[in-house]
Write a structure and sequence with these properties.
single chain; alpha/beta; 12 helices; Diaminopimelate Epimerase, Chain A, domain 1; 2 domains
């Protein structure tokens, strides 16, 4: 076998995972604070691999909040068992893996300085002395792609619920295989889609939405401003951080727009989501320049996120901060003396009743 082939690389990764698991009994999979389908499906896959091939007991934990309707539907339909990290005694687990996040990142609640045995991610690598083995693959659009490859290499039959989770995760993370998608993502998606439960997929991807969603949607549109190819909306107080990214994705679909920025206030933090339709955008670098905080911001080429603490800021100061972020995005894209315009002005809103 060619040692540089994708299969050889995956087999080598399996061997490294086996070495880490050797002698271990209990695995804890740690996700970021607001787990998305890719993080949850990846944790399901690692848990399944650890149980079936290495006979470990497994648990999945996160530190924050899950509010997006699709994510709640995924947990319900696929019976995903998640635990709150703060309620666990970590010393009960002799092996800890972090998925879709890394030690030192600002988006997880894993205690600083504690040993992490495995890291699986597709974001840029964060150097840490407290990690035994890392698999960080920037060439794939979804982390779930890596786990499909590992399960196939391990010659393990993927059950229907796991196949459903993995196929939905790849599809949602890459926006129907259209965002930062590699051939490996496509191959992995096709490998699991035929095993997925179509009825459950439909319920996950098209869930019923609460009234609060439509209130937030109306508020987002009312507050949306644009300049040239940039569009922004500052949502104010929100019920769940995931809505910020969802609205940023929606606004990016506006004609002539290639950058979208949304913010929302939640539990004393300002959450940001940045999106671009340019495959070479380097959105992760862009948001770090806007926020000026590498620990609490980062992302991929076309999408990124971050957060800023709002402690001790007045309402006026927060409003000023939100506009400053929009202006910093514009400046970093080469625009000065920006004059923002409402996408839907008051007169147009009033005419909606006609």
């Amino acid at each position: 076998m060619n040692q540089n082939s994708p299969l050889a690389k995956t087999n080598s990764q399996l061997q490294q995972i086996e070495k880490v698991f050797a002698g271990k009994k209990r695995l804890l999979c740690v996700l970021h604070n607001y787990p998305d389908p890719d993080a949850m499906a990846s944790a399901m896959a690692l848990s399944f691999l650890a149980r079936e091939k290495f006979r470990l007991q497994t648990s999945i934990a996160y530190g924050g909040f899950i509010g997006r309707a699709e994510n709640i539907a995924m947990i319900r339909e696929l019976k995903i068992r998640l635990k709150q990290l703060s309620r666990l005694r970590l010393n009960r687990y002799d092996c800890i893996a972090m998925l879709d996040t890394q030690p030192g990142a600002g988006n997880n609640s894993f205690p600083p300085g504690k040993l992490c045995h495995l890291v699986f991610d597709h974001h840029p690598l964060r150097r840490s002395k407290n990690v035994v083995f890392s698999i960080v693959d920037n060439e794939i659009g979804a982390l779930s792609t890596l786990f499909v490859e590992l399960l196939i290499a391990a010659d393990i039959q993927i059950p229907s619920n796991l196949a459903t989770a993995l196929s939905y995760a790849i599809r949602s993370e890459t926006q129907d295989l259209g965002r930062e998608t590699s051939q490996r993502d496509i191959n992995s998606y096709l490998a699991v889609f035929s095993k997925a439960n179509m009825r459950k997929l439909a319920k996950i991807s098209q869930p019923k939405l609460p009234r609060s969603y439509f209130i937030t949607l109306a508020k987002t549109l009312h507050r949306t401003i644009s300049y040239r190819q940039i569009i922004c909306s500052h949502l104010g107080e929100i019920d769940a951080p995931e809505i910020v990214g969802e609205m940023a994705d929606l606004l990016l679909r506006h004609t002539r727009i290639s950058w979208s920025l949304c913010t929302g206030r939640f539990n004393g933090d300002l959450h940001l989501s940045l999106r671009s339709s340019n495959p070479n955008a380097r959105a992760g670098n862009m948001i770090q320049r806007i926020v000026n905080d590498k620990k609490n911001s980062g992302g991929h080429g076309m999408f990124a996120g971050g957060k800023i603490s709002l402690n001790n800021l007045t309402e006026e100061e927060i409003l000023s901060l939100e506009m400053t972020l929009s202006n910093k995005l514009a400046r970093n894209l080469g625009f000065k003396n920006v004059s923002w315009n409402a996408v839907i002005n008051d007169g147009e809103s009033e005419n909606l009743d006609d």
